[in-house]
Amino acid sequence: MPVSKDLKKNVMILRAQIAHHNEMYHGQDSPEISDAEFDLLLLKLKEIESKYPELVEELSPSQIIGSGFTTFDPVTHRVPMTSLDNAMDMSELQQWGERASKGLGGVPMKFACELKIDGLALSIRYENGVLVQAATRGDGKIGEDVTANIRTISVVPKELKSKSNKKIPSVLEVRGEVYMSMVAFEKLRVAKQSENEKRIAEGKKPEAVPANPRNAAAGSLRQKNPAVTATRELSFWAYQLGEVVGAQTFISHAQTFEFLRDLGFPINPQAITVSSLPEVIEFCSNCETNRHKLDYEIDGVVVKLDDLAQREQLGFTSRAPRWAIAVKFAPEERNTILKNISVSIGRTGRATPFAELEPVVLSGSTVSMATLHNREQVQLKDVRPGDTVVVRKAGDVIPEVVGPVLALRPKNSKPWKFPATCVCELKSTFVQLEGESDTRCVEPECPFQRDQRIIHFASRGAMDIEGLGEKTVFALSDKNFVADIGDLYSLTIEMLLQLDGFAELSATNLLTAINNSKSRPLPKLLVGLGIKNLGPAAAESLARRFDSLDAIISAKPEQLSEIDGLGDVIANKITAWFADESHQAIIKKFRSAGVEFGNLVVSSAPQNLVGKAVVVTGTVEGFSREGAQHAITNRGGKSPGSVSAKTFALVVGAEPGASKLMKAEQLGIAIIDAAGFLELLETGKLPKK
To answer: Residue 577: CB partners within 8 Å, gap ≥ 6?
Structure first.
């Protein structure tokens, strides 16, 4: 079939797009599209070239690795640093395995499986055991000399020494990945935002904050001043040998790892060797499931044949080895258009800006809205309606807008201004109290706050009323059937049948769920009241101390403040809440409805954390934020909101607070991940290092 002029033109446009994005990613560390979107462009080009081989050219992006853009001195790689072909799902991985098996005549194969670190590929050259040169991958043939900056990375050996007294090769090229840990990235991000706050206060434009650890690592590695790189806490994993002269003969990839470990190179502890493709698939699945337990970002798994002779037999295509493949995970970052910025109102009046987006698929789900956190974050990130923005969704974490792609900003763009008044019909003026980053609607009759208070009361962490979700609460509110949480216990089947979507069975089920909630434990009821700053841990301590809601209502502030985790501020808020006439009316409705005020549930969990304060920061996999705190207090421990010298351990989940991390490090407090947290809950002891 002849190639049409239109197809030739489309291929030229596609190549130009890929070349541009290649340079922005590899050359300028300022990508305009996500990795997933780039992969789709390249895949489209490869499909066309596969169908029409006459269109393939030597300089096509499908035949070239990385970018030829250089700002440092060029370095020619003696052994080219090839790229890898991608498997976008398990069926493509299976097909690669079948091709490899066929190419080897069906002989048994072993597979080396390694995490695909989201960083920068690097080549480090040693001569007679001394580090003489380090270079980025570049286009695979020519990279950039970053030797001075690599010398600042503490885990990279500057001089080779064998732990087992093996001979040091006269030439050794070690390849690996430079990356930035999540802790280091959070520190850098907070520092950059702090600098931007000063710039804004001085009337200057804020500077771009790195969108993710990969961009931060790339920018740090390519600093002209190595002293700046030294402050960025970069890390390195070795994963491959390049040129080697004067070393032992290796027969397997696993052997090369033993050799590298012996010389002091860090090897990722997750790397394994397996004997079958089903084991590879299981490894990939486990890694994707547990990717957020790591302190660094990964975007897939690299699978290689372990036998080096088999690698030699399979060889290479024009750009990639046939004996390896990169299994890509579902993207967690994508670019899309920010259509508008709106503001939602929470149960305490907190006004939270959120982004309305062109729908985009992230982590297997379609995202059309994302949080912008607060007024200051919108200003610091300088995102505007019409911007192309980076959107991130990591696991179950709420999607967030990371920042704008400035190169794609419309020319007529104007900064977004936070509204002066609440979006409710009362048009209450927004207030930002001194010392708070939150902006609030302080009108107590605000219908948005009322609805959110009811939603919170019915939530799983509070009274757990199944079937009473947002949609139903809004419908009840629109009909004026509920003015506060106390009115839930006066609902009738006749009322519910007036709501769209309700029939007799669904209405009966909801009334049963509401009735069942009357016997919830006292701590759940206290949380459901929505008293500001009174979380599950403090609610449980309060319930244990006073035994009933009436006793708590009668208690003086000084009695309340004696409880661990409360203090004067929360004690005064509790007293003020129960003193409010509208809240007294709610308690009266509860009493009339037969809500239990003294249902205490004694924990059956082992009391192995008695006397230990465990602080949680970020979202720990398998727990809600309140659930993690409850798991601690349920075992007799304390879960305060801040780190101090008395803290036993800091549990770090996804998107941790930088200030807690830094303070824990300064005080030498044990820092544990989700897996370590589970071990702590089970044994009461810190996991062994």
So the answer is: 529, 531, 583
Dihedral class, residue 335 (left if φ above 0, else alpha if ψ from -120 to 50, else beta): beta
Contacts of 45 (CB under 8 A, 6+ apart): 11, 14, 15, 18, 60, 61, 62
CA atoms within 13 A on the CB side of 123: 29
> Which pair of tokens denotes residue 129?
């055991």
Supply the CATH classification number for the domain 483-593.
Answer: 1.10.150.20
Sequence-distant (6+) residues with CB within 8 A of 194 are: none
- At 125-140, the pLDDT tens digits run 999 999 999 999 887 8
CA angle 44, 50, 51 (to 5 degrees): 95
User: Which tens digits make up the pLDDT trace of 45-100?
Assistant: 777 777 777 777 765 666 655 544 445 788 899 988 888 999 988 999 999 999 99
Q: Where do the CATH 3.40.50.10190 domains begin and end in the chain? A: 613-683
Residues that are catalytic: 116
3-state class of 12 per DSSP?
helix
Please name the residues in contact with 529: beta carbons below 8 A apart, sequence gap of 6 or more. 457, 485, 577, 583
CB atoms within 10 A of CB 629: 27
Structure tokens given for 41: 């462009």
pLDDT digits (tens, 9 = 90+) for 564-614: 767 888 999 999 999 999 999 999 999 999 999 987 765 567 778 887 889
CATH 1.10.287.610 residue ranges for the chain: 5-64
Contact present, 146 and 134 (Cβ < 8 Å): yes
- Cβ neighbour number for residue 99 with a 10 Å cutoff: 13
Interatomic CA distance for residues 113 and 129, integer angstroms: 28
pLDDT tens sequence across 429-457: 888 877 666 788 888 788 999 999 999 99
Burial of 683 from C-beta contacts in 10 A (0-12 / 13-18 / 19+): exposed
Q: 670-672 and 647-652 as β-strands: parallel, antiparallel, unpaired?
A: parallel
Question: Model-level pTM?
Answer: 0.57
Burial degree of 654 (CB within 10 A; 0-12, 13-18, 19+)? middle
Contact yes or no for 144/72 (Cβ under 8 A): yes
CA distances (Å), origin 103, targets 46, 71, 210, 389, 495 = 22, 41, 43, 44, 71
Torsion of CA 187, 190, 196, 201, to 10 degrees: -130
Task: Return left, alpha or beta for 654; rule: phi > 0 is left, psi -120 to 50 is alpha, else beta.
Answer: beta
Task: Convert 65-117 into a string of H (helix), E (strand) and C (coil).
Answer: CCCCCCCCCEEECCCCCCCCCEECCHHHHHHHHHHHHHHCCCCCCCEEEEEEE
Cα Dmax for the chain: 89
421-425 long-range contacts (CB < 8 A, ≥24 apart) are 422/345, 422/351, 422/446, 422/448, 423/342, 423/343, 423/345, 423/448, 424/345, 424/448
Please report the sign of the dihedral spanned by the C-alpha atoms of residue 401, residue 406, residue 411, residue 412: positive
CATH 3.30.470.30 fits 76-194+209-328, yes or no: yes
Query: Regarding beta strands 350-362 and 324-328, do their DSSP bridges make them parallel or antiparallel, or are they unpaired?
Result: unpaired
- CATH code: domain 5-64 is 1.10.287.610
Other residues' Cβ atoms within 10 Å of the Cβ of residue 614: 25
